[in-house]
Amino acid sequence: MKPSQPTGATDGEPVRADEESVLADLTGMLATLLDEYGLDDVEVRMETTFNRDLELESIDLVTLAGLLEERYGDRVNFAEFLAGMEFDEIIELTVGRLVEHVVQSLKAAEAG
């Protein structure tokens, strides 16, 4: 693997560190999770909450963490992101806030 090629990209697809690309990736991951519950028609937007809108439980967040790691490698640490939050913040966590975290993490990894 060339040093300039991002690790963690699936199917040889380059990882792009912009909100639109990350939202598309995350929407795909959530579709995989929600399909297990028969909720494959839920629209995922930046303001969508994991708890209230998607009704994800803690085990689902663990699964999401694994999907994030598969896609982005160790550049995005979802568990560490959640660990820095208060309980109420986790309950109100939006897709947009996670997208912003992923974008920031990817940009930081590119810079460092």
Description:
The protein has 112 residues and is mostly helical. Helices cover 54% and strands 0% of the residues. The protein contains 5 helices and no strands. The chain has helices at 19-35, 58-72, 78-83, 87-91, 95-111. Helix 1 packs across helix 2. The radius of gyration is 14 Å and the shape is globular. The two termini are 18 Å apart.
Q: Structural class from helices and strands?
A: mainly alpha
Strand content: under 5%
Regions with little confidence, pLDDT below 50 for 5+ residues = 1-11
Helix content: 40-55%
Radius of gyration: 14 Å
Average of pLDDT: 86
Index terms:
single chain, 112 residues, mainly alpha, 5 helices, 0% strand, globular
Secondary structure blueprint with pairings:
Layout (H helix, E strand, L loop, with lengths): L18 H17 L22 H15 L5 H6 L3 H5 L3 H17 L1
Please provide a brief summary of the model.
This protein has five helices and no strands. It is an all-alpha fold and 112 residues long.
